[in-house]
Amino acid sequence: MSTTEKIRVDKYLWAIRVFKTRSQASEACDGGKVKMNGNNVKAAKPVSLGDNFEIRTEGRKWIIQVTGLLSNRVAYSEAIKYYADNTPEEDKSAPKAIAAVFHTGKRQSKIGRPTKKDRRNIEGFLGEADED
């Protein structure tokens, strides 16, 4: 890749695997969750070597410095060569978000009440018959 080629912030963050999709990276930029060199940044702003990013995602907070420009998504083992992770240890080990299912009161699938088939098997095992 040539050094004169410009790469958008959203494309760079997607390529280094901070975000799963490019549209998520773009939404994060527009939502003020991405700061470049201390300032909020738009998704279309070009990235330069040495830029510092402060990124807030659902799972964690990132503080990274650009060490190389990458325009296409590559394997994680390759992607980590294009940035330096300066995130403090307490932010890396922050407690993971609890799954949304715990806040809704809904049961997770396959856990909780037995299905109709399970109930019939249990009743058959216990010898209980329908007395209708």
UniProtKB/TrEMBL annotation:
Keywords: DNA-binding, RNA-binding
Pfam families recorded: S4
Annotated PROSITE patterns: S4
Compositionally biased residues, Basic residues: 105-119
One annotated GO biological process: cellular response to heat
UniProt region (Disordered), positions on chain: 105-132
Superkingdom, natural source: Bacteria
InterPro entries recorded: HSP15, S4_RNA-bd, S4_RNA-bd_sf
Gene Ontology terms for molecular function: DNA binding; ribosomal large subunit binding; single-stranded RNA binding
Family to which this protein belongs: Belongs to the HSP15 family.
Protein name: RNA-binding protein
